[in-house]
Amino acid sequence: RNLRFWWVTEISSQRQYFADNQQAHEQMWVNVNNDMVGVNQAQDVMRVQNITRLPASRFHFYNDVVESVIDYMVTSNTSELAHGRTSGDPLYLKPHMAHLGTRHRYNASMIFFHNNTDHMTFNEAPIGVPGVTFTNWPDHYIHSSDDDLWNIDRTQLGRNSAATTLMAWTMAVADDEVTPALAAEAVGRGAQRLARNLTMGLSWLATWADKDEAYNTAVKQLRYAAARERMALSSLQEIGAKGQEMVPSLLDALGERETKALADLVLEKRGDIAGVPDLRSLMAFEVLNCVDGKRTGLEIYEYVAAEAREAGDYYYGVVTPEAVLQYLQNVAETGLIELR
Question: Model pTM?
């Protein structure tokens, strides 16, 4: 795949290019933008090299390529106590520094997407090319007469150039041979993202006064997170035959993780179900187990009542249709099931 380098007037020239060449974006896979990438990070209030994640609407395994590169560069250029005691180089694990630059650590961070620079023109509709940006912030000299070369640190400029190159080269040469490694990044990091959204949902269940709203919001959050990860996994098919072969099983596994996460919410929510005096707890347990979206309430009653009769009245008590109906209504009030 080709690497195309663009030097642009911010935002406007890309939009003009896409307007003049309306099918051009169909031949573009991903985009990386460098905007504010060489500044001395120790100046002023200690700047951070921000690198955006993709917006959820453009999610792609490319996001995990970007994050893995940044993780590598940060780890390689951050001083750790244990490393300093066991390595010949007491400063950084794999230092990337310019001879005339600083020896500062690489103060970089992945952040949620934002716009206002050139990757925006690729992400936006109708272009739809997944794009990320490097943007250093805060910058009190931006667009001022002090925004000049004295701000530049050769080390920082080199690290960002190396990171950008590694991202671009990885995507340019991606083939069947490296697809499993790229899939490992997408699956592993996707599981972490799904877990983050599960944590949010469980915290809402634990702290919100309105438990129904908390549960419903948590379910929506997990559904969103899983849908986003399906986009990332499905994009592996764009590499070639190996990705097309792997993706169905990867999506199945993601579906299982989504189901498990939703089940974790259900386990938290079960404590809100009001009991029914005439329905013993073990039979209430079975009533809920029999809810599968296929059985009617009457069928659930008949099944559980038969189970109770087999064991004897003394063991499970007598299961009545009224008690089963009331319990199902109580469960529906928590938002765990929907009665139709």
Answer: 0.83
